[in-house]
Amino acid sequence: MRTLFLSLLTLFTVTAIPAQEIVEEVVATDTVAIDDKNVARYPVCAAFIALPDVALPLLQGNVRLDMIDYFASGMKTPSANALAGKSRITSLTPDKLTAEITPASSVTLCLLPSGKKEVVAMITTYALPQPDSKISFFEMTKLAGDSVSMTPLPQHKVFTIPSIKEWLTDNGKQNRQDVERLVPFMPVSYTYSPATKTLTLSNNVNDLVAEADRDSVSALLKKELHYRWDGKKFKLQK
Description:
The chain folds into two domains: 1-153, no CATH class; 159-238, no CATH class. The protein is α+β, with helices and mostly antiparallel strands. It is globular and about 60 Å long. Helix 3 runs antiparallel to helix 4. It has nine helices and twelve strands. A hairpin with a 4-residue loop joins strand 11 and strand 12.
């Protein structure tokens, strides 16, 4: 069911395939020369510029530079993406960038502190119409001069997608068959807070089930899960 929804979303919004599915196929490291005045002010911009095209195919490198310049200059001017749609950065801090790619999709890049390495999390969120996110990871390495390399990291080494077991409340554990009957799939949105190093997964299933079943579903499933970044991976907080 989840695959069907994502397939329909791709057709009707003409967006790219979810980044995680593409990034896992990338073997070679992408290296890009970074020479942009805004990178010193917003280090996450280096990751945005150097992100492999296969992970963000609708935005070419020069378009990403324009988007950064517009936002840093206080302008709301959108940039044309590869499908002649409009894309723009909606928020930017030194270690977190969020961009609206299409009216139905957005991308957030987060710098994760990891000692000598720079780990970058890429959260791609789609409207189904309820928000549903995917997450992928890269290792960003600064090379000689202004060059930066972005190497995809296997997701399982950094983050384990929770199973339905992690979402069940005590009531849900006792009534798992009801959960499986009422919830064919669960859209989940991801947000990351640099201040607390916390990745929050929010359950968005309520609006997809019949109104008469919403109270029952709320009692069976947790509203949120929280993961703390420990410098190497995200760990579920109990």
